[in-house]
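Re-run requested by the PI after the first attempt was lost when the workstation crashed. Everything re-entered from the original request form. Ligand of interest: ribulose-5-phosphate.
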Amino acid sequence: MKPLTDGYKKAAAEKALDLVQDGMLVGLGSGTTARFFTEGLGRRVAKGMKVRGVPTSRATAELAAGLGIPILTELVGQIDLSVDGADEVDPALNLIKGRGGALSREKLVAAASKRFVVVVDDSKLVKQLGAGVLPVEVLPFLWRSTAERLTALGVSLVLRGGEEVPYVTDNGNLILDVTVDGGIKNPADFGFELKKVTGVVEHGLFVDMTDTVIVAGPEGPKAIGRPSGTARTA
Ligand code: 5RP
């Protein structure tokens, strides 16, 4: 039997499909929730809808191509709408992403989007980010030195996949899964600290990037907008 969360993920993804209009350029996220969205978009394309997709991973590119969704991997201008999953969502709609390893491309696509919509089941809502690991993508060259510099920030970390068979991202990089004791109190500041570490390509904190979160639980999907008075800055 499929876990209940799969139904919630699908419900959230399907509500996001209502936002897609004919002619749009659509950012396609990665992970199991985003997959439901891409599959739904494929069904619409099969019925004649004209959209093009910008995939956030090779896996999503293959999925979309198989569903007949035309794919773009270069871009001038903006993406109309992007829909992606998340690992954690806080009350300000800041996110942790990247447990699927696609965080760098996901962030590039979100940053290039007029509207960034996140689809999650209700288990992803947290009061403070950092309950689980924060993925950080690093260059393989001298990665142990990068890991030491990160550890000096007071965090602990592990190399995803382990040293024998490390996980390699679509960009040919490694992932360090970072644990912050007590959680991440200021995601914006912590994100800046991480970005300053030489060797870090990108981190999974998405601060001030989300326009809408569609969250689904036992009561069905509902859309949460940005807290009033706050504007997206990233
Ligand atoms: C991949 C991601 C995913 O969006 C995130 O891990 C959520 O995945 P899922 O929808 O499978 O729970 O950031 O890099």
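Saved to the shared folder this time. Residues 29-34, 84-87, 97-103, 106 surround ribulose-5-phosphate (CB under 6 Å).
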